[in-house]
């Protein structure tokens, strides 16, 4: 539910529980903001023709939180009108089609929150220590590598 | 002078070592590549990911190379394979 005007909120949650868009949206709602922009990253069921049975996420939790807060600092420097920022990322087994990450950002007008959400997911993929393993049929599995990450091998 | 640090392994590196974490004794002043070589000497299978990992020391990323680090007792080191969050 919407709260009264208060300090800007920087919210981070890493959880094994199913993510909720309503929870993220409610956490960044504020009376002075005319826009809430939301990004939902969901898990796909196939990769290069192989059927994905499930996805598993793990994280270096304290560093993931500190890297996310660095991203928030960057966002507030580049888009000073941004009001509240919230990132929820799921860990452990995530069933196909469920959300693995939800980002919510509020601002008075839509331009800043839309741009900030794009920057947030792009930078998260490059810098936040979280890893995803795709498990295929016959129990084959593969640790994914984001192309945004600077030390991904370009092979 | 040697000190004790915690080493955390993630993703592929955890599968190669069979460990999530361990405590090791290392020199307090060394380069990141020397630190890597110490880890490989304990877990030779780690060498398979030499070209795709970085380290995190006190939760800051450092490339493998001539980067000098000063370690203190209780510091956290982590092996960081290519990221795949989001």
UniProtKB/TrEMBL annotation, chain A:
Catalytic subunit of the molybdopterin synthase complex, a complex that catalyzes the conversion of precursor Z into molybdopterin. Acts by mediating the incorporation of 2 sulfur atoms from thiocarboxylated MOCS2A into precursor Z to generate a dithiolene group. Its EC number is 2.8.1.12. HAMAP family: MOC2B (MF_03052). Heterotetramer; composed of 2 small (MOCS2A) and 2 large (MOCS2B) subunits. GO terms for biological process: Mo-molybdopterin cofactor biosynthetic process. Its main location: cytoplasm. It catalyses: 2 [molybdopterin-synthase sulfur-carrier protein]-C-terminal-Gly-aminoethanethioate + cyclic pyranopterin phosphate + H2O = molybdopterin + 2 [molybdopterin-synthase sulfur-carrier protein]-C-terminal Gly-Gly + 2 H(+). It is an enzyme of class 2 (transferase). It is found in: Cytoplasm, Cytosol. This is Molybdopterin synthase catalytic subunit. Pfam families: MoaE (PF02391). One of its GO terms (molecular function) is molybdopterin synthase activity. Substrate binds at residues 109-110, 125, 132-134. This protein is produced by a bicistronic gene which also produces the large subunit (MOCS2A). Belongs to the MoaE family. MOCS2B subfamily. GO terms for cellular component: molybdopterin synthase complex. The keyword Chloroplast does not apply. Pathway: Cofactor biosynthesis; molybdopterin biosynthesis. Keywords: Cytoplasm, Molybdenum cofactor biosynthesis, Transferase. The keyword Lipid biosynthesis does not apply.
UniProtKB/TrEMBL annotation, chain B:
SUPFAM superfamilies: MoaD/ThiS (SSF54285). It comes from the Eukaryota. This protein is produced by a bicistronic gene which also produces the large subunit (MOCS2B). The modification Glycyl adenylate is found at residue 86. It is found in: Cytoplasm, Cytosol. The modification 1-thioglycine is found at residue 86. One of its GO terms (cellular component) is molybdopterin adenylyltransferase complex. Pfam families: ThiS. Acts as a sulfur carrier required for molybdopterin biosynthesis. Component of the molybdopterin synthase complex that catalyzes the conversion of precursor Z into molybdopterin by mediating the incorporation of 2 sulfur atoms into precursor Z to generate a dithiolene group. In the complex, serves as sulfur donor by being thiocarboxylated (-COSH) at its C-terminus by MOCS3. After interaction with MOCS2B, the sulfur is then transferred to precursor Z to form molybdopterin. C-terminal thiocarboxylation occurs in 2 steps, it is first acyl-adenylated (-COAMP) via the hesA/moeB/thiF part of MOCS3, then thiocarboxylated (-COSH) via the rhodanese domain of MOCS3. Belongs to the MoaD family. MOCS2A subfamily. This is Molybdopterin synthase sulfur carrier subunit. PANTHER family: MOLYBDOPTERIN SYNTHASE SULFUR CARRIER SUBUNIT. Heterotetramer; composed of 2 small (MOCS2A) and 2 large (MOCS2B) subunits.
